Amino acid sequence: xxxxxxxxxxxxxxxxxxxxxxxxxxxxxxxxxxxxxxxxxxxxxxxxxxxxxxxxxxxxxxxxxxxxxxxxxxxxxxxxxxxxxxxxxxxxxxxxxxxxxxxxxxxxxxxxxxxxxxxxxxxxxxxxxxxxxxxxxxxxxxxxxxxxxxxxxxxxxxxxxxxxxxxxxxxxxxxxxxxxxxxxxxxxxxxxxxxxxxxxxxxxxxxxxxxxxxxxxxxxxxxxxxxxxxxxxxxxxxxxxxxxxxxxxxxxxxxxxxxxxxxxxxxxxxxxxxxxxxxxxxxxxxxxxxxxxxxxxxxxxxxxxxxxxxxxxxxxxxxxxxxxxxxxxxxxxxxxxxxxxxxxxxxxxxxxxxxxxxxxxxxxxxxxxxxxxxxxxxxxxxxxxxxxxxxxxxxxxxxxxxxxxxxxxxxxxxxxxxxxxxxxxxxxxxxxxxxxxxxxxxxxxxxxxxxxxxxxxxxxxxxxxxxxxxxxxxxxxxxxxxxxxxxxxxxxxxxxxxxxxxxxxxxxxxxxxxxxxxxxxxxxxxxxxxxxxxxxxxxxxxxxxxxxxxxxxxxxxxxxxxxxxxxxxxxxxxxxxxxxxxxxxxxxxxxxxxxxxxxxxxxxxxxxxxxxxxxxxxxxxxx
Amino acid sequence: xxxxxxxxxxxxxxxxxxxxxxxxxxxxxxxxxxxxxxxxxxxxxxxxxxxxxxxxxxxxxxxxxxxxxxxxxxxxxxxxxxxxxxxxxxxxxxxxxxxxxxxxxxxxxxxxxxxxxxxxxxxxxxxxxxxxxxxxxxxxxxxxxxxxxxxxxxxxxxxxxxxxxxxxxxxxxxxxxxxxxxxxxxxxxxxxxxxxxxxxxxxxxxxxxxxxxxxxxxxxxxxxxxxxxxxxxxxxxxxxxxxxxxxxxxxxxxxxxxxxxxxxxxxxxxxxxxxxxxxxxxxxxxxxxxxxxxxxxxxxxxxxxxxxxxxxxxxxxxxxxxxxxxxxxxxxxxxxxxxxxxxxxxxxxxxxxxxxxxxxxxxxxxxxxxxxxxxxxx
Lengths: 623, 378
Hints:
The structure holds two protein chains of two kinds. Chain A is of the alpha/beta class.
């Protein structure tokens, strides 16, 4: 993109999703970039249309009508540059239509090179259909059968550090060769396979695979045990995504010719904006997008080994680490039954402040699965659905924590208690250091009360210390992600001003004590001079109003068994921002302990839900 | 006469149906255009590549991978028989004593011999597979090397959820109306090979007995998810079904729980009792929706059938008959009495477009439009 960022005043961006194409118009108005309008239309990748640009033009037409500007020219093309009330300065797009980018990865050791390959693929925005590894406990014929069944868009083959094992890598290449995999799209073209493993095995891999697949060779993803070099593989994935996958999908050649920047896979673009914001503001970010079928979790946390190793080599040893995981079968409609199955009834019901009949609940869940577009009419249905959402989010987050770890294979001492924890103790997810938690997806963004979104985030992720809570209003992170690659200022401005709805700040001391014991003392002073102070008791939740954009200074002195960020019993003072919910003091301790006794549980839940005004009182008190 | 629930969920007495019968790999097409076929007739066949087994023969013989070629008695592409000696070393100190030999694990061929890893890949004999016609009809198109299209005129009923793949059997209706449940004692030995229809719910006892007797399929209004779990031994997580290891397929026409089959659907099935039905329980509720189905081939339009309007779905309007598909009125049927255009706040405090409905027993309720299905007769 050669255009000078200062000359970009009118930006049109689309996201071609699997069902809906969303267009947004961003303009430079009164010295800042703002979202002006948005439009949407059904995606037109599938028959009978089979041309993605039709849906794009329909969505843009809606933007035209709302903004009273003309974007589509006589030749059905997006007009550029902007002239008066016509056209835009840049047009950009992301895409997850047609199932997005589906990949298979392979590596020698499941927790090492195969995992690095998974990191690269997920970070590039792919869905990882399977990770084959020499030690994944499957027999070779089972692995071959699996590769043959999958029909991915491309395969990323890694394995061995440079100068390390050759035979294991060659074995993997032999498996791929024996399976003779065919690509998902485009009969008659060869499946792209990226080799990003031991340089010493390149020639052998070439010999085995060169004639059967479209082989591309890039630098080793794991040149030494202590380093992950994901960039070359990620770039190759993007190139192949454009060259093969996009070029095969109907209408994409035309769309690519319209766009001023390469079309990015939707989740890859979300990662780009999150990383941009985290890096620019030096904050740690956790984001979740819970959909009907899948739940994506994104995070940007500080690299724990950044200071220990060559800080000058930012590319091999970055300051922050971006991770993304896709929980393919955790979602609120198509996959709702799987959430029920994975979480179990008891885990779901611990969030419901009364009893419900199991047979009835099971049928309700399955009926939602077969009729995914229905909405909760009764308050009890909403409460149950939000309980399911908490579990879907919790399970997706556990998967994320176990994936977002420091590099395996680097020697490290571990305590016995760490070895028995459900979450991998090598995780880089630092809930105490987390600055902002962003929720997205209908159940969070469109909950009837904003406090419901905040409560679901608190219960599922259990953030510690001071954490800003927000929801993405209309899921425009994808478009902002691709925009961030060519106009970072516009992207971050719109991200803060129009994309996020700030819910407020949670203050959650970590630790535990006896019921009714003291968690600590708080002192809140708002910029308007209002003061709240008192003691937070264990098992208690409090909420104070603080409007969006307003600031307050909170000083929290935890008791000895609690930590608010500076260590057990140490006071922390922090300036926080308000939101539509306000300031939430969460005295439930970490991890949250829900009473096992039914009556105590109902009492505790009712108390918490009423404190935050999550549901009307009449809905919580059941006969 | 036919009627439609949600768009795409069809219940029609007589319609033209085209079924694409495709092989998973390229193969031989047995049928030709114009052939009259029965559901079990084979229209195309092919061989799936056999399973492979990998053996590290270099390790077994105690030699380097690159030297393996000197000990192999067969080469890549060679046919092998079960137990055939494929490699042998020269024994201890090349004396010929204590020779180690390696036998082929099965009949097939040698896929590859690796000088890097010492692995030898054996491929078993191809597995023959066939594509049957599934429905009674006529072959109207051949897709070269891939399969055929069978065209038929039939009664076509789509269900909402099912399990088990394709089945064929004679229809037998076991409940007197659409509100009767299928109980264990109703399923009898004489129902072996049949497609049983019941009105409301399949009980777990009835389903177990149907499996033990060898009933081909059961069509019912609903089933309890708990019973389904007990029978399958696991919870269905994602709505992609069709490959369950059960003899008796299930098609539910309305959903989960105690929900009577729509009156018209029941009447149609009752009308064609004794006729052969092709039933498929396969369901997929994401991208490229697949609904379970019942296809009853008809040589001519059934008596009283009028073809007008069979392809159209009429929109929601005042007077439309609807069924509520979400709690608290789940399963109730009524007539639309008002369609207010503005968003209304529901009990859950969500804002949604709603309609007012008068149920059959006279009570009225406000229901979100997203939570109803229209039942339109034509």
